[in-house]
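S.,

Sequence below, as promised.
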Amino acid sequence: IVRDGQLHFDIGLSLCAPRSDLQHFMPIDPRDVIKNILPATHSSTSPLWRGSLPLEMIPLFLRRAIIAVEDRRFYNHAGVDVARMAKAFLNNLRQKRIVEGASTITQQAARSALHITKRTWFRKIIEIPIALALERFHNKDKILELYFNSIYWGRGATNVASAAVDFFGKNVWDLNLKECALLAALPNHPL
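The prediction came back faster than expected:
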């Protein structure tokens, strides 16, 4: 929520992290954060940001929407959702081809580091130990930040900031609820 030129995060919905993990959600002014992370070559003539962003700069609506669409149990598993993988495996076996994925947000972040795009069982086998290692060494917020800054969103956008600029012509922190909902659908079916 933006009030008086400051970005405030509403943490009331159940899809966000447990309250103990939310102590860092404090009102911030996006311009202050951007001043600290923009490269020195950034000028006032190019106000649209296409680079990586800290999680706090990504709208809470978008974070919640991605979790709802991509991995409802994100905060309840250790990087791999075994039940979801078993269901997808059985469905794929019935169809005799890959028709359903079961990657968690953590696995997708791991996959983006591997740069393997072909859907194979081999890729899945490789990404599982990497996802487990990510979960072991990073908290959920860091993994979500990695996800937003590394997956493909469509139209050549390889991070959420670029996707916001390419699809809506504005910075990601300026997106409204409808725009966040559209972006949340893109990782499954990039344009």
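The longest strand covers residues 2-3.

Coffee later?
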